[in-house]
Design brief:
Helix content: 25-40%
Radius of gyration: 22 Å
Strand content: 15-25%
Strand order of the largest sheet: 8-9-10-11-12-13-14
Order of helices and strands: EEEHEHEEEEHEHEEHHHHHEHEHE
Bound molecules: zinc ion
CATH superfamily of the largest domain: Metal-dependent hydrolases
């Protein structure tokens, strides 16, 4: 196999060429391209190759494509060093307000060049998101955000770049979703007991995916019937521990989440670490140690809910634990998010961006 670069592409982008003769596997082509100087992330190879070649020369295998070529062909691919990656956001498959395609188009319009959709406990939006991202010329990485409990504190673990059909991950998430529905029914009963009936049914009308009904859907419904002024008011008075609509729930554990993600070939990332108010500084260090011991490899440094001081603080912890760094808006919808897709500061320069772990 021979390969090289074309020159004169836009900032951060390089077009590579690969000349393959005979039977060549997808992974061999990918390896060759990744070995090219500057090729740190690999996108669009499937789309490019399918465009370049008649279908009968391609054979889809479990791991990608196998090429049966009888003579010399040029294979084009596009390695990209992302300049604006956003690895945390939600669609209506969980508690976001926009459909996966709408989120994809918005990310592309905002200049995101490498994107992950990370719906809560559900992989249902990934196929559509990937197709839409490819259409828009944006790199795409499979994502999910798993809710866990560690020492009684609710924590979110983002998974990136995994095989979305892996049985351990798929069945683990199925169980989690079932638990959510049971909890939502009990929340409805608890609110009825204090004189607010019909909230479970009302919240369901806000959940595009009923199996992912969450407190956010309850909050939106309660705002709509005038129980509180806004979503955060509902949380404060009704849906947090000790308040009448809060129902305890057995979440997945840290070993569950990191284990499922790693088994499926993905990278586990601690989501928005500054948001875990129940954890003291010492707890956070113990948690990060546990996370690392289990195979966790990255933490979110720049994200929608982090102040500049949080960025400095968690950057220090990332260096201490030798974690890679992630960046994500946690976008839920135009009116409900701290920041819009891709509209985030860059990572501190010395940190290793998490996309390097996902080829
Ligand atoms: Zn979260
Ligand atoms: Zn999130």
């Amino acid at each position: 196999m021979e390969c090289g670069h074309y020159s004169g592409m836009g900032a951060g982008r390089q077009l590579a060429w690969v000349l393959a003769v005979g039977k060549v596997g997808f992974s061999a082509i990918r390896k060759t391209c990744l070995a090219l100087p500057g090729a740190q992330h690999f996108i669009k190879i499937n789309a490019q190759i399918t465009q370049c070649y008649p279908q009968n020369m391609l054979r889809r295998t479990k791991r990608g494509f196998s090429f049966m070529l009888n003579s010399r062909f040029a294979l084009y691919c596009l390695p990209v060093t992302p300049t604006n990656f956003d690895f945390h956001c939600h669609s209506s498959v969980s508690d976001g307000l926009l459909s996966p395609s709408e989120v994809a188009r918005r990310a592309a319009a905002n200049g995101v060049d490498l994107w992950a959709l990370t719906d809560h406990d559900d992989l249902g939006g990934l196929a559509v998101a990937r197709a839409e991202a490819e259409e828009a010329g944006m790199g795409f990485v499979n994502g999910v955000e798993i809710s866990i409990e560690w020492n009684k504190a609710p924590i979110h673990i983002v998974g990136l770049g995994f095989d979305a059909t892996h049985p351990a991950l798929v069945s683990g998430l199925d169980d989690l979703r079932q638990g959510r529905v049971e909890r939502a029914r009990r929340m409805g009963e608890a609110l009825a007991a204090i004189g607010i009936p019909g909230v479970y049914e009302g919240a369901l009308t806000y959940a595009a995916n009923p199996s992912l009904i969450s407190r956010a859907h309850f909050a939106r419904y309660l705002v709509s019937i005038g129980i509180a002024k806004d979503v955060s008011g509902v949380f404060q008075h009704y849906l947090t521990p000790g308040k009448p609509g809060y129902v305890d729930h057995r979440w997945a554990t840290l070993p569950d989440a990191v284990g499922w993600i790693s088994a499926a070939g993905g990278v586990a990332v601690v989501a928005h670490p500054a948001r875990y108010k129940l954890l003291s500084n010492g707890d956070m260090r113990r948690f990060l140690g546990d996370f690392k011991d289990l195979g966790g490899r990255a933490i979110e440094i720049v994200c929608g809910s982090h102040s500049p001081d949080h960025v400095l603080h968690y950057a220090r912890l990332a260096r201490h634990f030798a974690f890679h760094a992630s960046r994500g808006s946690d976008f839920h919808g135009p009116e409900e998010s701290y920041v819009d897709l891709g509209r985030l500061p860059q990572l501190p320069e010395d940190l290793k961006p998490v996309w390097r772990l996902i080829a």
